[in-house]
User: Fold these one by one.
Assistant:
Number 1:
Amino acid sequence: DIQMTQSPSSLSASVGDRVTFTCRASQNVNSHLHWFQQRPGKAPKLLIYAASSLQSGVPSRFSGSGSGTDFALTISSLQPEDFATYYCQQTYSTPYNFGQGTNLEIK
Amino acid sequence: EVQLVESGGGLVQTGGSLRLSCAASGFTFSAHYMDWVRQAPGKGLEWVGRIRNKANSYTTEYSASVAGRFSISRDDSKNSLYLQMNSLKTDDTAVYYCSRIALITSGGTRPFDIWGQGTMVTVSS
């Protein structure tokens, strides 16, 4: 199985800050890496697919990068609605594991 | 509007069974692979399993934690997805989400692009 490790587990930041989360796969997943946002009590929402492609309707302040085993999600200027938990997921091979999540909190 | 709506969750005793449903609307359900993902209270997301489309013989795959106990099926005529859960354990307590798998992207990937609101399953001893 491919294990996904996200860092940090939690992060405190302020509105307007630029933040970056990282995700590392235990094996090469090429570009089969996706990022989700989950607000409390809500379903996950796809933000970035194929490592760096912005899902339709997602604000351009979100961007993704990386390939192989190391990936990053960057939010260029935090907005109040961005405080949530972020998950990466690989769909290169089953089981399609998720990272443990990064909880983004307001400072 | 593209939408997935889960139903069928509830309280069940260990060893019992439950069948979840997911009603799809607003898209060509039959064309898509469909997956189930769960989230235990206060925990992260866990992939449960997948069913492919007719063109791929409706093949299924499951996580090791549910293989042999859970079964995924679909009825394309009813735009519906199902998760039959047998021999339930307390560790199966979670919100269960159904998710649509995007038709293959230019990068060759299949992201989980649409999610339902989830249905809660509580397994009590």
Number 2:
Amino acid sequence: EDQVTQSPEALRLQEGESSSLNCSYTVSGLRGLFWYRQDPGKGPEFLFTLYSAGEEKEKERLKATLTKKESFLHITAPKPEDSATYLCAVQAYSGTYKYIFGTGTRLKVLA
Amino acid sequence: NAGVTQTPKFQVLKTGQSMTLQCAQDMNHEYMSWYRQDPGMGLRLIHYSVGAGITDQGEVPNGYNVSRSTTEDFPLRLLSAAPSQTSVYFCASSYAEGNTEAFFGQGTRLTVV
């Protein structure tokens, strides 16, 4: 069964304390892995797409990496404005496209 | 630069009532979709459309109807609201069905009492 699991469910960091969020997946016909950021009361906002193992992408304090079984979102020296829920989604194809979302990691960065 | 616009933002319905959630995008995207987001669960696909006049069911379609008469609009209709449909609903659009990121609306928080 296609599945996306994110860990931890929630994470509290001090400002400047680097950490990583994990997204593990089991899916047939992977076409891409997506990271989104979701602020309270808002819709998800696109961050990154990764297509193949070994690929890395960076944006400000965020860096996403991909292996054959999981993806990591590394947050370097976070700031309070990085507080949000980070969603991972896998897109698979087996005749039709399927988008499978994880339940997210709620990140709180304390000043 | 509006992107994806959803209305209303909040709605309370009584069991058995019907309503339509509106979704419009101004990016000329072919692919549009509706998701529901419930606590402890990932976003789940309700219905999607790959272009005007073409719609299909997602993972959780029961109790919902959609139509796509124009590229811009993709309304979601609740036929007879049930408490199990209490959720936050998101409309999304993307350039194509595969390999492209989705742009989400702000969401509609629906409560069915």
